[in-house]
Structure formats: structure tokens, C-alpha cells
Amino acid sequence: MALLTCENVSVGYEGKPVAEAITFAVNPKDYLCIVGENGSGKTTLMRTILGLLPPLSGKMTLEEGVRHHIGYLPQQSPVQRDFPASVREVVLSGCLSRGRGPFFTRAQKALADKNIARLNITKIANHCYRELSGGQQQRVLLARALCAADKMLLLDEPAAGLDPQITQEMYDLIGDLNQSGLTIIMITHDVGAAIRNASHILHVSRTPLYFGESEGYAQSPLGSAFLKEANP
Amino acid sequence: MNTGGIWETLGFYLSYPFVQYALIVGVLVALSASLLGVVLVLRRLSYIGDGLAHVAFGAMAIATVLNFSNNMLLVLPITILFSILLLHGGRRVKIQGDAAIAMMSVGALAIGYILFNLFPPKGGNVSGDVCTTLFGSTSILTLSQEEVWLSIGLGFVVVVLFVLFYNRVFALTFDGEFAAATGMRTGLYNAAVAVVIATVISLAMNLVGSLLISALLVFPALSAMRVYKSFRSVVICAAVFGVTAALVGIVASILAGTPVGATIVAADIAGFLLFSLLGALKGKK
Amino acid sequence: MSMKRKIALILLLATALTLTACGPQKDAAPVAQEPGSLPTQSAEPEITPFPQATFADQNTGSAGAATPDPFEQLRYDGPPSALRPEARDYQDIGPIEIGEFIHWDLSRMSATMAYAQLYAMLMQPEGYVGQTVKVQGEYYPLTDDEGITRVHGVIVSDMAACCQVGLEFLLTGNPPPGTYPPPMSTVEMTGLFDLCNDGGEKFCVLRINELKVLEKASPSGIN
After folding, report:
1. Mutant choice from B42, B94, B178 vs A, greatest count of A C-beta within 10 A
2. Which residue of B has its CA nearest to A68?
3. Residue A64 — φ and ψ, nearest 5°?
């Protein structure tokens, strides 16, 4: 039973398509990487999956109830410069998607703490979010996404702007999460990492050029060309 | 006047029922406004607070002309309507809304004033009424029983709602997109916030008048943000700040005979300067 | 806002009623300006034509405030003078004795408080009848077409003079000519608060024995 199915979907803004005829499916425990050149519509596609944008045409089905078990790490966080929020408050806000009552339960607080520890930000848990470095902020937002992600985690260029070591840690973490049962959909520029880690690849470019398994992608003319471009 | 004399006078004044009502309503309205103000400031919607206040003035003028038994019956719905229209678009509004809001708020002010002049309130004291509605000179001290209970009820409801939905308000304000992506019904919540903002603004008109409502919304939040860094502490600080400024303002105005609304705003300004100083000192450490 | 309008209106209606009910001269003033005027009123207040005479009940009050809105189509059934119920006419109730103790000294309060307190008294007068009140404010007479003063009022404003509330006062006995200063002079008076009825209209009056003029305004009148 696929968690997410897209049939001939077009995505874009205000009637103008950015990418068209996208067809793919994501099953539980899949690790899908979406790759493509800049401006090819990857982020637009992700936002459409998340319900932030309506699909221009085609059929996109998210399995019943999954919406409340999704975590999301956006590419650029639209947070203002002077927003007063502690790290813990930000991470905790991820727990809201499954909460009912007005106050956070002990279980939710424990989950938040666990994810804070996982991302190695316990030391700065009480610091103000806006005073952190870019990398630290990224980790806070990932912790928040993990709190919300029960079944599926969507990441938009999670390693953008991070130094190689942290990037590697992040990919390792995401790989672990996938191993433990979390479905991953990730947009990334790093084609090599994508091929290494992902189970499936979707190459988006105005019209999708490839959807299938990662090994197949590496062998395909498109994939190998792309790889060569990325690693000259 | 010696200090003992002032305290005595104050104690004496506090025995007047209308003073007691003014303090209770003032505190509740200031509290609601401070809490809402944090949300407005952080979502960069402070100018909407001002625009809505002018709309409320226009609505008040219409209600006066039509001789409503209770002006709130017209002011509340109209202000709520405009609030939803303005905030419904969410982020879209910010981009195209600036000029539209400016036009709307100035238009409401002008038309309201024209109405007041064309259909003067029965006593003929046009400038007095306009002055009171715009600046809230003594309206808080001359509330009818009905207005007192309405204000108390609404103020109470706003505060309770804020407490109950505090976490969702934070999520919505901090990152509305993430909230929407993870399944929160942001459209509904945004509409609810719009309604509450409109309610608070309509109530606050009685306290400080249309032109000064922004101060009640904005100063507590800004002052708190100078010193505190987490959302919870900012909210609590803003609430305490707003209430204190209102109390100090009301008391000072009845002792000194100054207009109530402006005195409250003066207290807000003084507090803001103090907090800015504290924040600067804190930063240096 | 609506309250202040009503206060001034009470004053002005009192004028109208003085014109109709009392005094030997009956002014046959034109009625045309006020189509839907109150049934108890037969002559016109020449002061300000009101665009509309149907006054909605603007202050219903709560369970506690039993003040009926004087502009409702209800006749007030109280005595001409609540202070002296046996008097036949609200204007002349005989000599009054004003004690030493002042219940409400508005002259020593801040402008904001004095305004608000007088306002409260006018809104719910029953509780204040017979109490001694000291007021300081501006003298404001209401005159008819022929320049005869029908109502003497004192106006209390808040600091910016943005909000004003007026109270009618009556000197007992026959005050000699020259008692009343030019309009807008600063005056001070101490007297007994009274709730009166004239032809079904309810209004408040301060009964004083002496009018103290603190500062005479220029005789040219208001402003």
C-alpha cells in the first residue's frame, strides 16, 4: 500500500507549470531522493506533496492519516531574524501534529528531548534559536521534523551549507532513520550520496527523466552523465 | 501635595465604582492586547492592528449615526469582517496588502469623521466625541454596566483562548508553513486569530481610543523582546508589562486629571525605554 | 460617547420643558424642525435642530442600574422634586438648608475624576438625592429666542475640555439681577442634589443658596 502516489502530476504556481507529467509511488520504508538541476521544480514538487500548493493537474494521493505523521525540513526557514524562541520550544512545536490537548504531554516532551539528544544539540537546548549558527539551526529544525515524523520524513536539501563532516553525519542519521522504518523523501544536489543511500531516485526536469531504483539510475545514460557532471 | 496625601486621595478615588470598573476592564483589555500584540508583532502585522483600529472608528461612526443602542453590536462584526479579509490571505496579504490597508484605514477614518459631522451626535459636541473615540479621553471611566460586562466577558474569553491554544499559536507564528505541512488546519486558526484580534481592537477603543490602540498592542511585545529570548518569557513579560502600564496610566490620569488613553501610552513608552536600557545592559555583559 | 450626548440633551430638553410647562409666557415656537418629537413636548428647543428625534435606548444598563433612559417614551412618574416631594413645582421648593458636610467635593478632584463622577451621578441620580455636592465649572446659560435665560447650567470638563458634562442649578429664592455672570465664567457652588420631574421628563438639578463667581469671562459670551 503506497504511502504516496503521483499520477501524471503537474506542479507549479498560479497555473504555470514548473514540472509536468510526474508519475511515481513511494512505499513504506522507501528512501527516495529527488534530484535535478536548479529550478527544475523539485521544491515545488515537495511543497505540492505537503499540501502547501495544489497540483495543477494529475492525481496525487497521500495515504489516509499520513498527513499528521509527516515531518518536514524546509530548504530555507522563513523565520524572522529577531523571533524569540528557544531551541526546545522550536523542537517541541513539531509534536503538535499528533497532539490533542492544549499542553504538551510528558511523552511529547520526552520525544523532543530524545531528538534533541540525537542531533547533539542538548547543550544549546535553552538558547535562543536566532542566535545560533546556520548549521545549528538546521539541526534544530531537523529535530523538530523528527518530532513530527512518525511515518514519513521530507527533507529539502538538508545538507545545504553544512561542512562535509556534519553533512556525512546527517546522511548517516537519515540512513539510520530509514533503517528503523521511516520513509524518506529527500531533495538533494549530491547525486553521489543519493545513489549511495537511496533506494529510489526521481530525476525531475521539466518532465521527469527517470524514476526507478538507484542502481538503475547510475547505469542509465542520464544518471551517469549527471554523475560525471557532479564529479568531474 | 505630600506623598501621604496622594495615597489618601488614591484610596479615596478607588472607592468609586466607576474607577473600580475602569481598572478591571482596563487590566483585561490591556492583557488581551499585550498577548495578541506579541503575535501581531512577530508576524509583522502591526500595521494591520492600526488599520483595523481605524476601521473600528469608522464603524463606530456609522453605529452612532444609526443610533445603535450598543455600538459594539456594529463595531465588532465590521471589524471582524475586515480582519478576516485582511489576514485570510496569510502571506499573500503582506505583499499586496500594504497600500490597500493604508487606503482602507485612512478612508475609514475620513468617512467616519465626515459622518460624525454630517450627523452630529445629539449633544452637538462633535469634536468631543471624535476626540474621545480617537484618543479615549475618559470613555473608560464612563462605561455603562452593559459595556463593563461585555468587556470583562470578552477579555476573559480572549485570555483563556490564548492560554489553551498557546502552543498552536507559537507554531503558527514561528513557522506557519511547517504547521500546515504537518497537518495543522492553519486556515481555521488564522481566521480565529483574525477574529480575536478584531475583538481586542474593538474593546481597546474604549480604553485608549482608535489612534492609540497600536501602542497597547505593540509596546509590550517590543519591550519584552528587548530583554527576553524565549517565546514563553516574552509572552509573560509582555502581559505583565501591558497590565502594569495600564494600571499606572489609569491611576496617574485620575490623579493628575490627564486623558486616560494618552497617559497609558505614556506609561508604555516609559516602560519601553526602560526595557531597552535593560536589554542594552544585558547585552553588554 | 452616547452618554455625553444625552447629558447635554437632558439640559436642552429641560429648556424645552421650561418653555412649555412653566412661566406665564408660552412660546409659540415652530414645531416643524422635529418631525418625530416626543409627545410630551409641544414647543421647540430653538437651540439645535436635531436631525432625528427617535432616540434608541442607548444605555439600557444592567440589572443594577435602574435608570430609565429619559428619551424612551416612558413618562417619569416621580415627584417634581425628589428632595421635597410635597412641592408642587420643581422650580420653587422653598428654602433649603445646606449642611457643613460635603458628600462630593468635585472642586477638589482632578478634572478626569470630577467629570466621571458627575457623569455617574447623572446616570444614576437616585442614590445621590439630598447629598451635598460642591461643583466648580463654567457657567453656561441656555437662552430662548428672546434672550431670556431658561436654564442655568454649570459645565465640568476633563482636562482637554474634550469631554464635558453639564448640570443644571437653581438658586433658591429670587436672585437679584447681576447674580449671574457672563457665560463661561468660572463659578463655584455648593448645594443639594435633586432629581426632578417636569411634565414627565426626568432630570437633575443642584439646588444652591449662593453662586460664587471665581472668574468673570468677557461679556461677549462663549469664546
Report:
1. B178
2. B183
3. -50, 125
